[in-house]
Every structure is written in structure tokens, then in C-alpha cells.
Amino acid sequence: MDWGLILTVMLGGLAVLLLIGLPVAFAFIVVTTVGAYFVLGGERGILQLARNATQSVANFQLAPIPLFILMGEILFQTGVAHRAIDAIERVVTRIPGRMSVVTIFGGTIFAALSGSTIANTAMLGSTLLPGMLKKGYHPSMAMGPIMASGAIAMLIPPSALAVLVGSLAGISIAGLLVAGVIPALLLAFLFVAYVVGRSMLDPSVAPPDTLEQMTLKERWTPFVIYVLPLSALFAVVIGSLLLGFATPTESAALGSLTAVLIGAAYRSLSWAKLGAALMETLKLSVMILFIIAASQTFAQVLSFSGATNGLINMINSFEPTPLIVLLGIIAILLFLGCFIDQVSMLMVTVPVFVPLAKAMEINELVLGVVYLLTMEIGLLTPPFGLLLFVMRGVAPPEIRMRDIYAAVSPFLLIKLFVLGLIVVLPELGTWLPGLMGR
Amino acid sequence: QEVTLRAVSAFNLDTTFSREFQAFVGWINENGKGTVQIDLIGGPEAVPPFELGNAVQSGVVDMANNTAAFYPNLVPTGDAIHLAENTVQEQRENGCYAVIDRIHQEQMNVKYLAHAGDGIGFHLYLTKPVEGPDLSGLTIRTTPVYQAMFSALGANLVRTAPGEVYSALERGAIDGYGWPSQGVLDLGWDEQTKYRVDPSFYNVDVNLLVNLDVWNGLTDAQRAKLEEGAAWMEALNANNAEINTAEYAKQAEAGIETITFDAAGAEKWLTTARDAGWAAVEVVDKPLAQELRACLSK
Amino acid sequence: MIGVFFDRSLWMLAALSAGILGVIAVIIAINVVLRNLGLPVIYGALDAIQYALMIATFMGAPWVLAKGGHVKVDLLTASLAPVARARLSRVTNLIGAASAAVLGWYGVQAALASAARGSMIRTSFVIPEWWMLSFVPASLILCVIVFLRKIVHPDVADATPNGL
Ligand code: NA
Ligand code: NA
Which residue spans traverse the membrane (chain C) (predicted)? Predict the structure, then answer.
């Protein structure tokens, strides 16, 4: 069968099924099963699909996903995260769009404590969203910064996805982990600039709130008690990575156990809370891993049909300058990011893009950062964006999916801007790793 | 008439262990016009490596480029192939090829069409030096290929996901890993590797398998063309000595030093490799292991 | 009655899966400590954890589905009138049940074929392959029941996802 037809039918079918509200994983299962029947040769193709599904999540490299979620959930269930956010809120004063700025600060700090964009977004959403909506913040000023800064967790170490990109693409993992830091901080800065600017132009989107009068001590004491000790967690996760006694997966496991210890130290831990943290971890992990299982098999069928290669070859046929190739890579990644998960994006494209980039002498760290940023954008682009769904999960029922899409769009533009900046100024990604020296 | 076979490789295309296979595909598509053509679908992105054996068995793909270590669920004695000390040409002469082909046909429903990898040995790669064939105190990443041997030499074994090997080396979570003489630079592991231990042991086995129903359905002319291509591909194995030399030079350039054992050390190294390897196959099927050992040894 | 028993069973499978995730964290941490003390690590941990991840995913999935926790896109459905929405929801649940039934059926066939062949998984341990192949179909069969129940009792299906 013609790959163009298969691509159209599979993506079109997926879009329709998603639109009528079938759970994402099952929408993938439907089109993948039908695709496997036609592409993999009838019944034996579906038998093979069932086997592939077993293999797809039996993958050690996915272990950091539940572990980093568990870390966040423990901080969340024990109330440690909430108190930390409250403490941050006290010390951020007198700035337009104050709560949105708090969100971005909190999101960036937690990005360095958690490798899961999902846990980060869920935590920010559940702690800050209700208060912001109550204070009369426009939904876009409330949800946009949550999703946008929640996604930063992918760029700042610890980052499970950075590790995955590095290993699949053969890029230095330590280098790539460090390469994400400057773009992440730049993003956070631009987000703050945007919310402050917008709140100044239109104060109604972020009504100024009257803060209680507090002494300097009252203002900073909670910060010292509830935020500074979290640097222990930071030290365990990033320290174990940098000082070199643990691999990323191991630092994730150590991090979740340290989170348990921190919860215990605040006397906030109980068996019930630990159980609740584990059940919530399961819920989120299953949600992600089940989609990964379904969409990986989807990517396999798509690739088997020749659609993946056909699409990439088509783009390649317009080349060849390195800049055009890089832009082509970005375009394909952004396009794929609309429909499939980050792991599948990697799986499908790395075999073609990495040799292509090498032949074109595109810097490997630039390619790596481009992967990270496009994957991060993919988390936020409809119709399939994991963080959009997480936001849906924590938002009140009256918030519609289209409100969420609208809320995230200005931040998507900022992310695209930074992505463009990396293309023009590769040093943003390569400068910091260059200082490490091998 | 012309038939087109759909083929998948267990290894990324354009990397070391797809090299001979892709050359074979090129040769067939060049010389088999009007008889047989091969549609190379892709690598692990199309079929997961550990499922490729099942896919060629059931006919989801017609042809697979695969290593026996990826299908032990189907041919559990396949580990014997990498223990061979003779070449596939010699195995075709002495009848061993026929035995291996038979077990593939019986147990896996595939024709064992061709074999690449002769002359690509396996090495131990390390981040710290060793004196002799004693691995006690070292934590080594293994796959089933090295498990029996490294364990017999006293290593502390771990299983590490391929994507974690780089950072595990970097962080000292592992002190080394087993890998063939070629392909270390494909993975970027050279950045974190300081030593390669010589001599090499075993031989890489990369096998070209054809679904048996498809094979039996081909005309004599089509089968003959594929076998001609197989012989042409197997002749490429002779280039491996030269490729190894180039690869070792590249490894040295990347800062990997060579540790060469003395005669006694090398003897113990290779004997342990051989005995531990065959003992593991004997556990699965003793009579077959003995039959294979007799014809795969020098 | 049967409904309560079914829910309890789904919850127990989920609790078991959640426990598995906790054990994964502990085992990995134990291995780090053992290694840094220069002691031998738990050898089969990698393979065990790979399969444990798969088991937790598929054994937890029916419970997540019953809780309405699998992500959906409500771009269109949210804008429909209640009657139309209920009708569409019946259709999507039917599609969900059918797809899970088809893939589940072939999953059973794959497991049976593997058992008949006597295929063994040979990593750091040796176990029958069909054991691991059984989790996907088992999960999908439970999902079929959950979808069918949502058709019969739409009120259960309308539970809003929360607590992420
Ligand atoms: Na992070
Ligand atoms: Na997306």
C-alpha cells in the first residue's frame, strides 16, 4: 500500500477517535490494530502487535518515569511541596502578575528537583491553580505559566528524557544534561517578562492582591524552613549524578527515598500518605506508560509501512544546506510532536536524523538541545500533548480543553522563539558543556 | 518471475552489524532483477529487536538480519554459533552449517541463509586496568553472550540497559563491558573507555534468516540467486581482519589503550571463554551441544 | 454485588502494581548502596525491573480506566448537549471495548502459541515466555469489562478525572 495513504488513514483515524473522546491509549490501539492488519500482514500482524506491546514498556530506561513521579508525589502528599510553594509566594512581592511569577519561580526550582514534567505540572497545578482562579486571574495567566514552567523540568537536570536522547542519539549525556540549563533559564526569564508585561498592559488578567503586612522575619522564616532543606534533595539527585556515584535511574530511586526521609523529617509522613503517593504515582505512570506502549507500537507500524521514511525522504528531497536540514528536522519533530509521545518521536527519527546531522556537520549538542526543545514543545501542542492532559486532570471541570490550548499558546510562541534562537546562536546550548572539559 | 521479499534488520541501518546485510541487499537488487528483489524496510524502529525472531518465524517479515542472542526463546542453542572457531565456509564444508540450518528450520521455521561476523571477535573493555585473566572485584556489564565466561573469571556481573551504559561507565557504576571489536565508536562508549583487553574471544554471529514458508514457495532460480548472494556476502567476512585493524587504530586514537595478556594469561582467557560458553549450551541441550562443538571447533 | 467484587479486584491489582513501583525504587537504591560498599549487586535486578514495569503498567491500567483516569481529548465532547454527549460516550465506549477485545483475543493467541512451543525467556533468569505474554491480554480483557460497564452504567463513566 502507498505510504501516503497509510499515513493519512492512520493519522486521520487517530484524530477522529481522539476528537470523539476515546481515551488516547485506546485511540492508538484502534488505529495500530487496524494498521497492523493491513501493514504487517493480517492476523499474524495483530499477533505480533500483542507481543510488541509487552516488549514496549519492559524497558529499564523507562524506570525513571515512575521514580521521578514518586519523588514529586511524596513531596506533594506530605504537604512539603505546598508549604514550599507557599513560602516562595511570601517572598515574591510587589510584582505585576505576582502569582504567575511565583508559578514560574516554583516551576523552575522544582524542575531541578524533579525529572518529570508531568509531576512538576501536576504539582504546580494542584497547589497554585485554585488560588489563582479564586483571586480572579484570567485562566490563561493561571494555566499557561503552570504548563510552560512545568515543562522546563525536561531541560534542567535531573531529566529522564535528556538521558534518553543522549543515549539513543549517541550524544554525551553529561554534556546534554548541562546543555539544557541555559535555554531553560532563558525560557523562565522570558516567561516572567511576558507575564509581567501582560499584567502591566492589562491589570484585569492578574488582579493585584493585597498582601498582609509582615515583618522581614515573618516573610523569610517559612522560606528557610520549607524551601532551603529541599536543597538536600537537590544535592542527592544532582549531586549523585555529578559526583558520580549513581546513574540517572539510580539517582531517581535515591531521590524518591530521600523525599520519603524529608517527609519523615517534617513529621508529615504516614503509611496512609505513602500509600496515597504510591497510588497516585501508579495512576500517572500507568497513564504515561500505557500511552507509550500504545504509541510505540503505533510508531513501529508507521515505520514498517514506509510512511516514516517516506515522509522524511520527502523533506530531505528539498535540502541540502545544513541550516535547511536543521530546520527540516525541527519541522518534522514539531509535526510529530503534535501526534505522538516523546519516546516515540525519538524512536522514529533518531535512526535517520543522527546520521543526517552528522553528514551535515551539525553540532551534536545543538541537535540534542533541538530534540529536547521540540519534545518539550510537543508536550504542549494539541491534539496530543501530555501536559495539556495533565492540566485537564487538575483543572476544575468548567475549564474546557480549548481554554487550555488557548492558555498555553503565548508560551508556545516563546518556546518557538528560543528554539529559533538556538538555531541562530548555537552557543546557547554548546557554551556551558564546553566549560566542563573532558 | 520476480518476487520481492520484505526484510528488517535487528540493528540500526548504516551501523556495523547491518553492514554486510545491506551489502547483500544491494547485491541482490543489482543482480537479481527479474528474479528476486529485497525491500529493506528498516531496523529496530520497525520491529523491536527481541521480537524480530518471532516476526520472521510467523511471516510478518520475509527476511531478517538478526543475531542468535536476540532469539533464544526460539532457538535456545543458538548461543553455540558465536562459539565457532571455524568460518562459515568451513562449516558449509564439514556439514555443521546443515546442522545449524536444520535446528533453525525445525525450531524457528526459518531458513538459515547466510552468516556474517566471522573474524569479528569480542573484547572486554574497561575503565581500569587488569593484570591478568582475573576479573574479581570488577563490576562488568554483561549480556547473555559473556555471562558464563565473565562469571567464571570472578567478575561481579550487572545487566545494564544499552542506553545507560555510557553514564554507568562515566559514574563508575560499571568498570567495563563486553563488546565486539567493531562498533564501540558507533555507540560513543569510547569516550568513557580506557582499555581494551586482547586477545578477543568468540565470533560475532549475524545471521540472515528467511521465513521457511516463503523460502519453500520460491522457485529454484530465486533460491539459487539468494544462495549466490549469500555466498558473496559470506566472502565479505574475509575483510574483517582489515576492518578490525582500522577499528583498533580508531579506538587508539580515541584514547583506548590495549592490555595484551601474556601467553599463559591468554590461554586461560580463551580456555575459560570456550569451556564456560559450551557449558552454558550443554545445560540447554547436551547431545546437540556436543554435536555442534565437534564441528565448530578447530 | 458482582460490581463491588469487580471494583475491589481492580483496586487490589492496582495496589499490587503501586507496591511494585515502590519495590523498584527500593531495589535500585539497595543496588547503589551495595555497589558503593564494594559488595556484589542483585544480579537479575535489571531484567526483573523491566518486567515489573510492564506488569505494573498493564495490571494498573483497568483500575485507571475505571476511575476515568486515562487521558482523553474533550475538545468536541465538552461542547455537546448532555443527550448527544451520552450517546457519543456510548459509541466511544463500544469502540474501546471492541478494540480491547480484538487485541486481547490476539494476545491470548500469542500467549497460547508461545506456551505450546515451550518458548522460554532466557535473560538472567529462565522463565516461560507465556507468563509475561499473559499480562497484556489479561489487562485488555479487564478493560473490555470496564468499557461494557460504562455503557450499561453511564454514571460511572462520567466521573471526572481528578487527583493527578
Ligand atoms: Na528536571
Ligand atoms: Na503535542
Answer: 12-34, 40-65, 94-118, 130-148
